[in-house]
Specification:
Rossmann fold, 7-stranded mixed β-sheet, 6 helices, globular, binds S-adenosylmethionine
């Protein structure tokens, strides 16, 4: 397993052991409304291409919070989640039987299928002890892997550099620079949402114009 994935898995596994299925259990802090806003931003990836019950891969799905949110909003999905933290995947498998939950590292897991959409809510948030340049390489691998698995598009969020306070353990990435990288390396069909009241942004990348 990739060493960064392993360190992140250990970190989040500990959070889940301490706090259980809650925003704090996936280290999003205690404010549930912020977590729900992030889920909403992820599901907006499907706003532009009409499809009945689209397939969606949730990368770094944690305990399946996005699955629960989609159910609460009557959004019908053919849902698959993958996470490196085994305790969260075990919980999700037992408590959210309508989803398919996989224990694995997205960077090396071999899928035998593709998905309409692939989303990632929160892997590019903590860097822990990892150096910034190594995290940039990890982010590039993650984004390439997500895009390779989608037939329509992907969405992911990242902490913005437009902040007035930096914490050493978090991963911040300049939105204009990452947008430019995605444009030249992944797809010209993209959107960036830096408009919402969290210190992060969401990038949407599509295979075709939407
Ligand atoms: C901030 S949490 C967010 C969980 C979930 N997306 C949510 O918002 O409720 C990030 C999750 O990504 C998982 N993760 C980190 N690196 C991963 C990787 N390489 N492959 C799969 N999951 C990973 C962690 O174990 C953790 O559960």
């Amino acid at each position: 397993m990739d060493p960064i994935s392993k360190a992140l898995g250990q970190h989040y596994s500990e959070k889940f052991s301490l706090h259980g299925p809650s925003p704090e259990g996936v280290d999003w802090g205690s404010d549930e409304t912020k977590m729900l806003l992030r889920y909403d931003k992820m599901l907006r990836v499907a706003d532009y291409v009409a499809r009945n019950k689209p397939s969606l891969l949730d990368v770094g799905c944690g305990y399946g919070g996005l699955r629960g949110y989609a159910i609460s909003k009557n959004i019908d999905l053919d849902y698959t989640g993958i996470d490196v933290a085994s305790n969260m995947i075990e919980w999700a498998g037992a408590n959210l039987p309508s989803g398919n939950f996989i224990h694995g590292d997205i960077l090396d897991y071999k899928f035998d299928r593709e998905f309409d959409y692939v989303v990632c809510n929160g892997i590019l948030t903590q860097k822990l002890e990892t150096a910034g340049l190594q995290m940039d390489q990890f982010a590039a691998q993650l984004i390439r892997q997500m895009f390779s698995l989608c037939t329509i598009g992907i969405a992911f969020n990242v902490m913005t550099t437009k902040v007035n306070y930096y914490s050493n353990n978090l991963y911040y990435r300049n939105p204009a620079e990452l947008f430019s990288w995605c444009l030249s390396e992944i797809s010209p069909h993209l959107k960036l949402d830096h408009s919402y009241p969290l210190y992060e942004y969401t990038i949407y990348l599509y295979r075709n114009p939407v």
